[in-house]
């Protein structure tokens, strides 16, 4: 039963308030042995459970996708590869794979969902090489109902490119700034906007970039205000937080 169904049963007198309380307090997950699928995560957090595909054994991945699809009618997975896509597609032909973001998903009524997207999130990259991480952020936010503007290749080596897009960026409810190398983009954007900036360091860069550590440290040590930082290459985490901010900003 869903929470609303429980409440309606109480209203009709079909179950007692004590029975409803017991049900709602009970942990609601399905034990698969290799995974525990969290059925009431959306009730608690506003977001369905998402699958991190990398490293999962084939049989486990297929079973998880099938169960989530049966329950929710849609599934979002991150960090999938082409082989995993082919495997899941054999069992769920409607699954879609984006090799850039590595997102593997089934969306319920995607065209209708696209029309109903709310608010505005700006996803910016310093360079073209940062786009895979940015797309993970952008597509995560879109899957969860946010409208996204993509503003790519506006890094500090050509600041006029960023300044030409200032108005669009300033109108967003929040900004995701994705950058490798020295990671300066987040600081520059933070000094231009009044809304939160989510900085995403990427592992793009030469040796002293240290697989994204240099960009991470730059972003954490930014002198600009209103910047929060997620882990290296964590586009999904940025897209999730951006969606939370966007939902709050869109409440009327």
Strand order of the largest sheet: 8-7-9-10-11
Q: Unreliable stretches, pLDDT < 50, 5 or more residues?
A: none
Relative helix content: 40-55%
Instruction: Give a short account of the largest sheet.
Output: 5 strands, parallel
Shape: globular
List the total number of helices.
12
Q: What is the string of helix and strand elements?
A: HHEEHEHEHEEHEHEHHEHEHEH
Q: What portion of the residues fall into strands of 2 or more residues?
A: 15-25%
Mean pLDDT: 91
> How would you classify the helix and strand content by structural class?
alpha/beta
How many individual β-strands? Answer: 11
Radius of gyration: 20 Å
Termini separation (Å)?
30 Å
At a glance:
By secondary structure, the protein is α/β, with parallel strands linked by helices.
Secondary structure elements and pairings:
Layout (H helix, E strand, L loop, with lengths): L2 H9 L5 H9 L3 E3 L4 E3 L2 H5 L5 E2 L5 H15 L2 E4 L3 H10 L4 E3 L4 E4 L3 H6 L2 E8 L5 H13 L2 E6 L7 H5 L2 H5 L3 E6 L5 H6 L6 E5 L11 H8 L6 E3 L5 H16 L2
Parallel strand pairs: 3-4, 7-8, 7-9, 9-10, 10-11
Antiparallel strand pairs: 1-2, 4-6, 5-6
Structure description:
The protein is α/β, with parallel strands linked by helices and 252 residues long. Helix content is 42%, strand content 19%. The strands form three sheets. A five-stranded parallel beta sheet has the order 8-7-9-10-11. Helix 11 (213-220) links the parallel strand 10 and strand 11. Helix 1 (3-11) packs antiparallel against helix 2, helix 4 packs across helix 5 and helix 7 (131-143) packs across helix 12 (235-250). The longest helix has 16 residues, at 235-250. The mean pLDDT is 91.
């Amino acid at each position: 039963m869903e929470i609303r169904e429980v409440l309606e049963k109480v209203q009709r007198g079909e179950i007692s308030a004590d029975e409803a309380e017991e049900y709602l307090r009970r942990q609601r997950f399905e034990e698969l042995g290799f995974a525990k699928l969290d059925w009431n995560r959306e009730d608690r957090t506003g977001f369905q459970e998402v699958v991190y595909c990398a490293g999962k054994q084939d049989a486990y991945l297929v079973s998880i996708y099938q169960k989530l699809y049966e329950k929710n009618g849609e599934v979002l997975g991150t960090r999938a590869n082409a082989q995993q896509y082919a495997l899941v597609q054999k069992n769920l032909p409607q699954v879609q794979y984006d090799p850039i973001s590595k997102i593997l998903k089934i969306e319920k009524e995607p065209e209708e969902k696209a029309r109903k997207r709310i608010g505005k999130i700006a996803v910016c990259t310093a360079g073209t090489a940062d786009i895979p991480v940015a797309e993970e952020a952008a597509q995560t936010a879109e899957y969860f109902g946010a409208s996204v503007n993509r503003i790519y290749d506006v890094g500090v080596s050509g600041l006029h490119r960023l300044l030409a897009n200032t108005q669009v960026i300033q109108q967003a409810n929040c900004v995701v700034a994705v950058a490798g190398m020295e990671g300066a983009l987040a600081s520059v954007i933070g000094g231009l906007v009044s809304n939160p900036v989510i900085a995403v360091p990427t592992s793009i860069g030469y040796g002293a970039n240290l697989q994204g550590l240099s960009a991470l440290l730059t972003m954490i040590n930014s002198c600009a205000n209103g910047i929060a930082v997620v882990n290296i290459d964590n586009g999904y985490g940025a897209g999730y937080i951006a969606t939370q901010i966007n939902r709050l900003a869109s409440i009327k």
